[in-house]
Amino acid sequence: MTDPHYHVLGMGNAIVDILARAEDDFLVEQKLSKGSMRLVDMDESQRLYAAMGPAIEASGGSAGNTVAGIASLGGRCSYVGKVADDQLGAVYRHDMRAIGARFDVAPLPTGGLPTARSMIFITPDGERTMNTYLGACHMLGPDDIDAALVADTAITYFEGFLWDAPSAREAFFKAADIAHGAGRQVSLTLSDAFCVDRFRGDFTRLLRDGTIDILFANDAELKSFYQTSSFGAALEALRGDCRMAAVTVGPDGSFVVTPDGIRQVPATPVETVVDTTGAGDLYASGFLYGVACGFALTDAAALGSLVAAEVITHIGPRPAVSLLDLARQQGYPL
């Protein structure tokens, strides 16, 4: 088996984030659940946009953010996601290519569903409340999978949010089969407790039947996954189900879980948290790139914590500095 050219291929919902600061009272007025992610239709998306204060636009989407982090670390990466041939779609395609990621998926023609967008409200404590219209994302399908690209990638990484569209599920299974057929690894992030509640059965089967080699979750998602209030019990259950997993616990760092044991890795200290958008996505960047580079799992987790710490010090879901420079300053052999 030849060595793969690409470190990571990210597959997910291509979403342009529209971010604005908001007070807690605003969330109450708008009947929004703080810290949640919900899907909305186009009308609700437009209503929330009209109610927002000054906003910035930034290309996002969970897997897209992870790919951006890997590119900033110096990794070779690519992205699979669906946008429309419209203004936001052009912004997204430009941003992915500008960071050095390969992004060849053909856009939907003009007149169809528009490019996805997420209205994100950031409260003073740095928490984000997301309201996402998926639009063109629903049209991602198996024809968008480049078999040669998947086979030439060490790790193909999927976001759980894809499970909302049946055609995207077909694309997932096609890509996973190709990856395993080429001797590569497949990774999934649970994405949100919202996803876990809806698709627990599917995600459980994927983990237990070996479709997923590397699982990502945070503590809330993992407890929801195993339907327990005990985080320790959830970790032990995961140990029995997974080949490899990384579970984040905010300022307490993360846990690396394998059948051989559970190891905790401290978080990188942050003086002021500005915006938690993208924290889990960037953690996955460091961890996946570390694994692809052959790091020990605890070192990969520490790299994940380092790059996650950078992204929460500013507004926006993608790095504001070179993560490669940052990692080298901390002694990582990149």
Could you give the topology of this structure?
Elements: E1 6-11, E2 15-21, H1 24-29, E3 37-39, H2 42-51, E4 55-59, H3 62-72, E5 77-80, H4 87-98, E6 116-122, E7 128-133, H5 147-151, E8 153-159, H6 166-181, E9 185-189, H7 193-208, E10 214-218, H8 219-226, H9 231-241, E11 245-248, E12 254-258, E13 261-265, H10 279-292, H11 297-311, H12 323-329
Parallel strand pairs: 1-5, 1-8, 2-6, 3-7, 8-9, 9-10, 10-11
Antiparallel strand pairs: 2-4, 6-7, 11-12, 12-13
Helix pairs in contact: 3-10, 7-8, 8-9, 10-11
Family: Belongs to the carbohydrate kinase PfkB family.
GO molecular function: kinase activity
Protein name: Sugar or nucleoside kinase, ribokinase family
Question: What is this entry, summarized?
Answer:
It contains 12 helices and 13 strands. 39% of the residues lie in helices and 21% in strands. The longest helix has 16 residues, at 166-181.
Report on the architecture of this protein:
This protein is α/β, with parallel strands linked by helices and 334 residues long. It has a single domain, classed as 3-Layer(aba) Sandwich (UDP-N-acetylmuramoyl-L-alanine:D-glutamate ligase). It is built from twelve helices and 13 strands. It has an eight-stranded mixed β-sheet, with helices on both faces. Strands 3-7-6-2-4 form a five-stranded mixed β-sheet. Strand 8, helix 6 and strand 9 form a beta-alpha-beta unit. Helix 7 packs across helix 8 and helix 8 crosses helix 9. The relative contact order is 0.15.
What are the salient characteristics of this protein?
five-stranded mixed sheet; UDP-N-acetylmuramoyl-L-alanine:D-glutamate ligase; 334 residues; Sugar or nucleoside kinase, ribokinase family; alpha/beta; 13 strands; eight-stranded mixed sheet
